[in-house]
Structure formats: C-alpha cells, structure tokens
Design brief:
The chain is globular, with a radius of gyration of 19 Å. It has seven helices and nine strands, in the order αααββαββααβββββα. The chain is of the alpha+beta class.
Length: 243
Amino acid sequence: PQPALPPEPDEWMRRFSTLPLMVQPGERWLYHTGADVLGVLIARASGSSFPDFLAERILEPLGMVDTAFSVPAGKAGRFGPCYWRDPGPDGEVRVYDPADGQWATPPAFPGGGAGLVSTVDDMAAFGEMLLAGGTYHGKRILSRPSVAAMTMNHLTAEQIATSGPSPTGDLGWGFGVGVQIRRTGPARSVGTYGWDGGMGTQWANDPAEDLVGVVMANQMWSSPQPPPAFQDFWTCAYAAIDD
C-alpha cells in the first residue's frame, strides 16, 4: 500500500510537536526533519505559503520556470516516470512513481526538505547563483555572507563520525548542503558543496574549479553511494578541465 501522505503544515506541526526528542539538540546530526520545520517557519514569518515564498524570492528571479512542488498539466508531457531496481533475485527495473503520480497535483504539505521537481537548466541557474556569491546576471539574490554560511561545514568531528551525512566521513553539513571536508579521489575539491537526490539526481558546486555540475536521471539509487554512471560523470567533468 502507498504510505500515508503528510497532512497540511499546521496539522503536521501539531503531530510533530507531540514526539519526544530522539537526542538532545546538538548531540547528533539528524537529517531532513529540521528543514521541513524551517519551511513552516518561513511561511508563518512571511505571511505567505512556502511555495509562493520560494517562487517570489528564489525561483522567479533566477528564471527557474520549471521548478515547483508539482507539474502543471501543460507541462505534463515533459515529465517522465521514476524507476527503481527490485532488490529481489530478478533485479527487474520497475516503475516507482508514474508520470501522472504524486507530482501531478500540489502536495498538502510542501516541505522545506524535499519535493521540488526541476530541470538541469533550472538547477544550473541555482548553482551559478551560489557560485557567484549570491548574484545572478547582475541581480543580488542572497548576500555573500549568507552564501558563505550556507556552504561551510557546521558539524563537529564527533557528529560527522557518529551520524554524519556520508558513510565514508568525507562530508560535513552546511545549511541544506553536504560540504566536502576531505578529498577521497581525483574529483571534488575540499569545499565542494551540493546534495544528492535519492530518486536519481545530483548537484554540486566546486568553487576551487569554478564548476557547477548537475546530473538528472530517472532511476532511484540503490545504495548511499552514487551509481557508476554518476561517478563516471564527475570523473569525466574533472578530466575535461583544461587551464
């Protein structure tokens, strides 16, 4: 059966507030939920819905015309299904979410931690803005200090070792992005930041190389490590640098 869908933001917050703390604040790094709470806070502080706030402050100024919490009917023909590989003996590739599935209608709870659909061009614009210190085509979107704070590691060595965002311990965490704290191969300089989408996407900025990389596939990852095609993309991107 399909999992129960999140309720609207106020009800989600009411239910969430009844849960006890898993750990004391700052004791461990916990993924995702804090970003959903932040999305509700932004909506309440701005007096706007979270999707409208994102559209006004980020998406429209960057020309991200294909990024939203759902796909409108007029663009449905450009949106494909998402697949997953069955872990069973046959390893068959199956449809996880059809093109007319969960993104065909706006969600009851547009979360701050996940749920946007986008395109390579839109994500590249977002990456370019951050790489330029918060400006895009001469327009200021975020302040330079805000971008610096977003893209630096805020986790302690103990948090990274016990509950960090990477099983290999090579990533810290900024404000919504993983941050490379040590180099583990030929690709990705220390200070590279971005994030991987488990449904088949990956974005990273490497300021040392003035590089924005975006990969969008339509098959879910089967492990915390990127699929070989993703690793090959980054290997080829860095191998193509000619300065």
